């Protein structure tokens, strides 16, 4: 569980640290001892509590591309260009290029990811974050752990976000998106705080799909009769099939809910963030409703 390298699926990375008994590199379990976490293999910091010696710093990611089918497009046209959705996607791509080409993925996660311990205590642990700890909730929404991670997130955002932006309006959609992302991060922080494993407090969270989960909920509420063209695997073949959006999104949410309550905490995926973001999106879109000049159509709200 604690020896896997950085990969796109689990988005989990462990930084090497030294066995305090034998002075050698190890992943074996001895007992609970004060942990010396190594950042970039040079700087050590003693944490204020004890956790198992094999539990080292890794990070979790919100990852929406965990669906039995892959969406390609929906059948709901938009009336206005989705400038906010395009801007969010552009910002995520630009930040990912910064992660890969400038600072590196591990360093960017350490300094801009949302770490529950830092958010709960308002104390920054080395290496120093690029913003004060509470604001890493926002910066983490634009970080990703690999190409597959960002590609999946941006695909979902493009297919469903443009329609939600069309209904809510650009300014309100911006607030809606950020609000869902913040609630999603806080849900993950709460789960980490309640976890019996203290190491969960050290797991930086990265990814946009907490906010995108809220967008999915908003889409399901606003367009209950829409359909999604999806790539469906059938044994060794793939077929293009239109499926009801409510079924597609509802199935996705049930998978996240099941994993949040029954799945392993070591999966490297922030399922609690998905559930929290989805719940926030459902409530917020009900409270906000469509913009005043949005025309009711057969797909949506006032059918």
At a glance:
The chain has 303 residues and is an alpha+beta fold. The chain has helices at residues 83-103, 105-112, 116-121, 136-139, 147-168, 170-194, 209-222, 245-262, 271-288, and strands spanning 32-39, 43-52, 60-61, 70-74, 205-206, 227-234, 237-244. It is 45% helix and 14% strand.
Can you characterise this structure?
This protein is an alpha+beta fold and 303 residues long. The chain has a single domain, classed as Up-down Bundle (Rhomboid-like fold). It is 45% helix and 14% strand. It has nine helices and seven strands. The strands form three sheets. It has a three-stranded antiparallel β-sheet. A two-stranded antiparallel sheet has the order 1-2. Strand 1 and strand 2 form a beta hairpin. Helix 6 packs across helix 7, helix 6 runs antiparallel to helix 9 and helix 7 crosses helix 9. The longest helix is centred in the middle third of the chain and has 25 residues. The chain is globular and about 50 Å long. The relative contact order is 0.17. The N terminus is likely disordered.
